[in-house]
Amino acid sequence: MLKSWNDGAAKSAIVDFVGRVTAQDGPDFVPAEARIAVFDNDGTLWCEKPAYIQLDFLVRRLAEQAAADGSLKDKQPYLAAAAGDLSWFGDAIAKHYNGDDSDIKILAGAVLSAFQGLTVEQHAQRVTAFFADATHPTLNRLYTACGYTPMVELLRYLEANAFTNYIVSGGGRDFMRPVVAGMYGVAPEQVIGSSVGLDFNDGHLMTTSRPEFLDDGPIKPVRIWGRTGRRPILAAGNSNGDIQMLQYTQASEPPRPSLCMLVRHDDADREFDYVAGAEKALDEAAAKGWTVVSVRNDWATVFGD
Amino acid sequence: MLKSWNDGAAKSAIVDFVGRVTAQDGPDFVPAEARIAVFDNDGTLWCEKPAYIQLDFLVRRLAEQAAADGSLKDKQPYLAAAAGDLSWFGDAIAKHYNGDDSDIKILAGAVLSAFQGLTVEQHAQRVTAFFADATHPTLNRLYTACGYTPMVELLRYLEANAFTNYIVSGGGRDFMRPVVAGMYGVAPEQVIGSSVGLDFNDGHLMTTSRPEFLDDGPIKPVRIWGRTGRRPILAAGNSNGDIQMLQYTQASEPPRPSLCMLVRHDDADREFDYVAGAEKALDEAAAKGWTVVSVRNDWATVFGD
Q1: Which residues is B147 bridged to in the sheet?
Q2: Most distant CA atoms of chain B, gap in Å
Q3: Predicted TM-score (pTM) of this structure
Q4: pLDDT at B303
Q5: What angle do CA A271, A275, A280 make, to 5 degrees?
Q6: What was the pLDDT predicted at A262?
Q7: CB B66 within 8 A of CB B73
Q8: Residue B90 in contact with residue B77, Cβ under 8 Å?
Q9: Mutation site for A-interface testing, chosen from B163, B179, B198, B200 by largest number of A Cβ within 10 Å
Q10: What are phi and psi of B192, to 5 degrees?
Q11: Which of A188, A219, A222 sits opposite B230 (nearest CB)?
Q12: Which residue of B has its CA nearest to A174?
């Protein structure tokens, strides 16, 4: 297993950690039911550049709404969506990570209302239809082929060692669920993500435009506890929004083994090379001894082909 | 299995339903991953009379707070707590189910602030300490011995048939988790319940006095979807707060098999005899063909002794 990982510090850290927590007679043994591993999704399990995959799904819907309702055409983010201008969206998110929430609020309102009034099953059908043929804008592959092969191997390796994996993402819970079973072998009940409030109406659950959770930063550990009632022993992320999830994993009292991993995107040839949005996380990794995974050096393949 | 169930319509309904959904070649087959069963807790898995078990835990804490802070002594619910007057609390809940929320709001404020400022681990320790020796006021047994033996058998029977069971209770999520593993064999990640908001602080999760979820009525199906991303095929409850959870289980489109059960407390000799708070649910059961489980007639034993 872990065939798509090059020999090196990151692979060794994983194998060593799993060996220690599964060694029944060793000092670091962790019983199977407490072997909880948590994974960010965008930039950790699948590609997040040049834009979040969910943003493509959203922009298509906003353009559809702008085409159907003339009053939206001159307003952001519908203006940018109708023009196919993804940079406005990327800038809004970059501003957010730098502390300026002006555009993200406009975007959030549109995100929240984009799919309101559907049953959760109807929403899932839209997601499934999107992933059936939507392709990455520069990598020339289906989005469903944009998962990182070494990370999917890691999920399997952990399962084989009786871990339970959870995805803990700022992305939409109900956007990920229909596709991650096929891409990663992760069941819907193992997906924690952002969500809108739902209304129960005549036997069915309907989407609303009310925010429920924005599953990012300090909310990630809150949601992990809410879902599992446990503190993870392994966490993997790639950006500033993952810092608290990794801190939570590491800060157990009394202390017990943990593995905190940060994927570093440094491979412009095979994927992307960027640190924007990950600066603080990389500083924290250095300070706290987290394992930094270099895409360029640690992964023998990125997408398995 | 199901040895503590008397032969009769309820037991037959369970055995027939499980047989149908597990018959690989039959028309009602449901794959294992979709065999989700949801159970209310108070009055469905454990005894809820003469008062909710969590109310005892709360009243002890309110009395402690009243003793420590004189300014609380003359105010409800501290006044009732210090006097050991449980009827005020029971009345507040009964009023709530009859549409009068005046007292429940006062109670909710006290509930929310009673345990604020603890780490989730400290809170769990308080719960564990409470259950170590707290006894039921009239049944002469530990609260941990107040689970219904036939329902625990049903949980095991469903697990043996590859169901995944969830508790979906208006009771506190983090009040149930430390004790239900031992009582029912249900893991913390299978517990859905009411909760306060948590704050992430220096690596740890701290309780607050902010409400997060009141997991009752229409919120139950919302939380089931949020947790599992699936619609259950079996649901069991006992009160008006379970109606929507059972409706949700039954209303699948396209239709597929479901079993909706309502425990009817009609056994004053072995447990309690009451319908207060369950009137609408019993009406709905009759109208929708739900399986009513009579404690008196369907259970050979209530507590297994």
Answers
A1: B46
A2: 68
A3: 0.96
A4: 98
A5: 145
A6: 98
A7: yes
A8: no
A9: B200
A10: -115, 130
A11: A188
A12: B229
Q: Which amino acid type is present at position B185?
A: G
Token pair in block for residue B82 = 């210090």
Q: What is the reported pLDDT for B12?
A: 98
The number of C-alpha atoms within 13 Å of A204 and in the hemisphere containing its C-beta is 14
Tokens, residue A284: 């924290």
Q: Are B6 and B294 in contact (CB under 8 A)?
A: no
pLDDT tens digits, one per residue of B164-204: 999 999 999 999 999 999 999 999 999 999 999 999 999 99
Q: Are strands A234-237 and A259-264 parallel, antiparallel or unpaired?
A: parallel
Q: What is the DSSP letter of B113?
A: H
ipTM of this complex prediction, to 2 decimal places: 0.95
Instruction: For residue A164, give the chain B residue with the closest CA.
Output: B189
Q: How much is the pLDDT for B119?
A: 97
- pLDDT value of residue A85: 86
CA–CA separation, B132 and A96 (whole Å): 48
Distance CA A202, CA B163 (A): 26
pLDDT in tens, B134-154: 999 999 999 999 999 999 999
CB contact under 8 A, A229 and B191: yes
Question: Which amino acid is it at B220?
Answer: K
Q: Are A37 and A158 in contact (CB under 8 A)?
A: yes
Residue A192 is predicted with a pLDDT of: 98
Residue A64 pLDDT: 94
Using an 8 Å Cβ cutoff, are B158 and B37 in contact? Answer: yes
Task: State residue B120's pLDDT score.
Answer: 97
Residue B197 with chain A: CB contacts under 8 Å: 222
Residue that is written with structure tokens 């913390």 in the block: B188
All residue ranges of chain A with pLDDT < 70 are none
Q: Do B189 and A230 make contact, defined as CB atoms within 8 angstroms?
A: yes
Per-residue pLDDT, B187: 97
Contact call for residues A267 and A113 (beta carbons, < 8 A)? no
Residue A31 backbone dihedrals phi, psi, to 5 degrees:
-60, 155
User: For residue A159, what are the contacts with CB-CB under 8 A and spacing of at least 6?
Assistant: A165, A185
Residue matched to tokens 């804490």: B61
Closest CA to B227 of A245, A190, A216, A235: A190
Mutation target among A118, A168, A176, A225 for the B interface, most CBs of B within 10 A:
A225
Predicted local confidence at residue A303, as pLDDT = 98
Q: Please report, as a single letter, which amino acid is at residue A82.
A: A
Place of tokens 């506190």: B172
Element (H, E) at A220: helix A219-228
pLDDT at B257 over 90: yes
- Residue identified by tokens 């702008």 is A66
**Whole-angstrom Cα distance, residue B41 to residue A49?**
46
* Percent of all residues in chain A with a pLDDT value above 70, rounded to a whole number: 100
Q: Which residues pair with A119 in a beta bridge?
A: A206
Q: Edge-to-edge, what's the strand order for the sheet holding B191-201? A: B204-213, B191-201, B164-172, B36-39, B234-237, B259-264, B291-294
Q: What does DSSP assign to residue B274? A: -
Count of residues in chain A: 305
Q: Which among B74, B120, B94 has a CA at the least distance from the CA of B278?
A: B94
CA angle, corner A45, sides to A44 and A48, nearest 5? 70
Q: Return the residue matching tokens 């997991």.
A: B215
